[in-house]
Amino acid sequence: MPAKVYNDKDADLNVLKGKTLAVLGFGSQGHAHALNLKESGLKVIIGLYEGSKSIPVAKEKGFEVLPTGEAVKRADVIFVAIPDTKQPSAYEKDIAPNLTKGKTLLFSHGFSIHFKTIVPPKNVDVILVAPKGPGHIVRRQFTEGKGVPSLIAVYQNPSKQAKKVALAWAKGIGGTRAGVIETTFKEETETDLFGEQTVLCGGASALVQAGYEVLVEAGYQPEMAYFECLHELKLIVDLMNEAGISGMRFSISETAKWGDVSVGPKIIDASVKKRMQAALKDIQSGKFAKGWVAEYKGGYKKYNSLLKAGESHNIEKVGARLRGLMPWMQKRSIKGTQASY
After folding, report:
1. Pairwise CA distance, residues 303 & 102, whole Å
2. What is the maximal distance between C-alpha atoms in the chain?
3. 273 three-class SS
4. Pick from 32, 66, 29, 34: which is nearest to 50 by CA?
5. Is 309 helix (H, G, I), strand (E, B) or coil?
6. Which residues pair with 156 in a beta bridge?
7. What is d(CA 312, CA 308) in angstroms, rounded to the nearest whole number?
8. Catalytic amino acids?
9. 279/312 Cα distance (integer angstroms)
10. 169 near 16, Cβ under 8 Å?
11. Are 24 and 79 in contact (CB under 8 A)?
12. 175-221 per-position pLDDT tens digit
């Protein structure tokens, strides 16, 4: 049975009128939610740790900025827009001591609640509003009068109003303009991690690098390998995004189609699916979460080492040079772009 899709008519912004909404963090999702909610006529304050680089940025956008604990104390609904690994310490230090009965904790990803790195008291509502897009897209779509499809979930509901609050927040950020689907913290967390690891980020990156290496090792020019294995990927993904896999196939040549349906399944075969299933089991059992928390506590040594190795791959050097030949393309530097929460 298809999931019910909630739209503007199903959500009431009045549920949040008269309430104070605190956004803890002003990074990718934090800044987008805060600005969209403010422009939806709601009262928004920002909570940041002392010394955060985002303090002047949030003030410049017209927000009242408070220390995290003070923002929690003042607010009725608290959006924890802080990185997953940093949420537990922020919760213990600033959130928990100021969390009183009747308040609502809101997340845009279920990691901390589902894997119990945060265990909230039973007398607060705990909800999720997760736009299916990065913060800059959530913001841009809103300013254009549109929205990004979003998920909502309810984990705790002592007030019996949690779902209404989640829908109102989703409406405030523009989500109900596109459509909102109800899920659970468990489902959102596990499917999100699986998608990131095996398809969207990990799978796609590894596939691109492997294809590039095969062509270069076979004696082809690196520039040709870059164009065929990375640059043109966007064209195909855009077609899939707009019309599905069959729609993409409708738009490519017969030769490309035949290669797709006859060779693709030999590359991404049953053995790959088996390893995907193993990755899913690690997510479901909590093994991945425990390892990630341990990596953070250990100072990100392996994480930083793997990222550095990726940055030094030859495909990055070739790509930077070729992208310089494409004046129409928006250039992004990975240096110094980490959002400060």
Report:
1. 39
2. 67
3. helix
4. 66
5. helix
6. 126
7. 6
8. 109
9. 26
10. yes
11. yes
12. 999 999 999 999 999 999 999 999 999 999 999 999 999 999 999 99
What pTM value is reported for the model? 0.92
CA atoms lying within 13 Å on the CB side of residue 229:
24
Task: Give the number of other CB atoms < 10 A from CB of residue 311.
Answer: 11
- Residue 299 DSSP SS3: coil
pLDDT digit string (tens) for 59-118?
Answer: 999 999 999 999 999 999 999 999 999 999 999 999 999 999 999 999 999 999 999 999
Distance of CA 252 to the CA centre of its chain: 30
Cβ density class 143-158: b for 16+ within 10 Å, e for less: eeeebbbbbbbbbbee
Q: In what order do the strands lie in the sheet with 180-182?
A: 5-6, 180-182, 150-156, 125-131, 104-107, 77-80, 20-24, 43-48, 64-67
Name residue, tokens 């030999």.
266
Helix boundaries (H) for 120-178: 135-143, 162-172, 175-178
